[in-house]
Amino acid sequence: MPFRPQSLLRANGRPRRLAGFTLLELLIAITLLGFILTLLFSAFRLAQQSWDSAERHMDQNNQTLAGRAFLDNLLTQAYPFRWKKSPIQKFAFAGDAEHLNLVAELPPFLGGGLQQVFLEVVADEKDPEKFRLLFRHAPLRQEAPDFEAEGLSEERTILDQAKKISFFYYGRDPANPSPLPDAPSQWYPEWRE
Q1: Which of 129, 152, 157, 158 could form a disulfide with 133 if both were Cys (CB 3.0 to 4.6 A apart)?
Q2: Is the pLDDT of residue 1 over 60?
Q3: In which element (H, E) is residue 29 found?
Q4: How far apart are CA 44 and CA 81, in angstroms?
Q5: Is 109 helix (H, G, I), strand (E, B) or coil?
Q6: pTM (2 decimals)?
Q7: Could you tell me which of 119, 147, 124 has the C-alpha nearest to residue 134?
Q8: In which band, very low, low, confident or very high, does the pLDDT at 177 lie, cut at 50, 70 and 90?
Q9: Residue 27, Cβ neighbours under 10 Å: how many?
Q10: pLDDT tens string 54-86
């Protein structure tokens, strides 16, 4: 009888089975580990996609807020300039639902001083259901009879991926002028002098 250490024998003298895993147990453990790693990888991937989506949404919201703030500031800086070479010396302000031209005081990084400002609503090239608000400016020429696009800057996008952008103008109806000072005012899709 071959020599076996006492710790490997049972009380009845038969050899004790060594502790360990069988090949079948090892295959089951590896398969379960594979399933668990697949689930963890999917969860991490989903979390990363959610994070990226939230970050894109926050960037778009921040861009929209910055565009609105710029537009608010621009409209508050509108200057009541009159075209001196125009026969009726009308105000330098013109607009319809998709365009707005005015004279405003611009910050130094845009050239500073009084400048002609051109705002235009255009459909997005990638998604025709979305709209962009474009901004351009040009130096103000005091001797001009009306808005001129001479020396026009490159276009900049103020608002992007908007569902709808349009301009409306509040005032009295010029077609029905009323002598009463408290005549009703309303919104119009175009500026009427």
Answers
A1: 158
A2: no
A3: helix 23-76
A4: 59
A5: helix
A6: 0.69
A7: 119
A8: low
A9: 11
A10: 999 999 899 989 999 999 999 999 999 988 887
